[in-house]
Amino acid sequence: MSKELREFHEDVWHCSKCFCCAFINPYYLTDENYYYGCPAGKYFEFDSHHASGRMELARGIIEEEIPYPTEKMLEIIYSCTTCGLCNANCSFLKGLEPVEVIEAVRRKLVEDGIAPLPKHKKFAESTEKNHNPYGEAHKKRTRELKDAKINPNAESIYFIGCTSSYRTKDIASATIEILNKLDIDYTIMGDEEWCCGSPLFRTGQMKIAKEVMEHNINTIKENFPNAKRILFSCAGCYRTFITDYKKFELDFDIKLVHMCEFLQDLINDGKIELPKKDELITYHDPCHLGRHCDVYEPPREVIKSIANLIEMPRNRINAWCCGSGGGVKSAYNEMAISTAKERIEEAKSTKAEFLMSTCPFCQLNLAQANKQSSEKIKVLDLVEYINKLI
Ligand code: SF4
Ligand code: SF4
């Protein structure tokens, strides 16, 4: 079960306001232009918008010192992308995980009827009605994926996710083409796939998050009884299944595999041979995959087996967030785009031809920022790149 806010009372007192959560750990600093770590703190330029400020706000709420609601307070709590850079620094230094506290504050605000924000309420209503947060009709979910297989007896399920179903559709198509070309025994869930629950869980809307999670797990158990593995091309869905489903005690014994791990295994086992390309690629770690699931090397190994990889100054545990997570893209789009623009500039500083990632939500935001940039870099997902080579 998720912890209640009051259970973090001791933690919030242990925050020493040292501000180590705001910046890249100096040990890893390679470029003085890229020393900042907290995207919300950088954008709003107030102490309050860093993890330390949110810890203090949490203390004030727990001790009933803060008379809420105020709009500013909601902005502080909901402008956090939940990227986890503060967790990485603070858990190492002080044993604290500010993101857990911030998400507990959000749950409490929703419980008390003060949140969600209007934009977050809207995507929850859409999820109740359409099973996706984008306001799209459910029947359109897999309509364009004509070549996708539906097989109740398959051993692997490809969980597509809402973003690739309705926005970055090329990622879903590329994944399906890869699975078809490799003759993998897989199925999609078709109309039975609902939102994984990530945007609801991250914004504190637990009732509807639980409903969609229960639906997905019950459907998998009932409709796909032979499934031993779920494949994900979305880092957000993958992380949610790994870390959040268990908070509702949803019990399932199925291996969860991101496509970058799947591809790495195939390459290591000699099951696919890919041509060498003389191309320079830089890799953006999605927060969901990297800091939240500790998956850093598989995508890099896949890239290195084909092309040349060059790291951005902030990479792996210190990666700069794309800016869209935690409900920020819908509620604070300017901040999301500003954060993504900084990532685009950082990627271009490497002179790479491609900025590659493994998350459709990162890609969506990075591509929008790239469009607004005078000099462009090619933004694409690992599966799109690999699909062209198989
Ligand atoms: S959250 Fe952790 S790293 Fe940030 S100011 Fe508090 S103690 Fe320091
Ligand atoms: S999760 Fe990211 S955006 Fe939120 S406080 Fe921590 S470093 Fe800042």
CATH class of the largest domain: Alpha Beta
Bound molecules: iron/sulfur cluster
Anisotropy-based shape: globular
| Separation of the first and last Cα atoms | 43 Å
CATH topology of the largest domain, anyone?
Answer: Rossmann fold
Spatially, the strands of the biggest sheet line up as 2-1-3-4
Major sheet description: 4 strands, parallel
Strand content: 5-15%
* Overall CATH architecture of the largest domain: 3-Layer(aba) Sandwich
Describe, in plain words, how this protein is organized in 3D:
The structure is a single chain. The chain has 390 residues and is of the alpha/beta class. The protein has 3 domains: 5-111, Fumarate Reductase Iron-sulfur Protein, Chain B, domain 2; 129-264, 3-Layer(aba) Sandwich (Rossmann fold), CATH 3.40.50; 275-389, Rossmann fold, CATH 3.40.50. The chain is built from 18 helices and 8 strands. The strands form 2 sheets. A 4-stranded parallel beta sheet has the order 2-1-3-4. It is globular and about 60 Å long. One iron/sulfur cluster (SF4) binds next to α2, α5 and α6.
Q: How is this structure best summarized?
A:
Helix content is 45%, strand content 7%. With 390 residues, it is α/β, with parallel strands linked by helices.
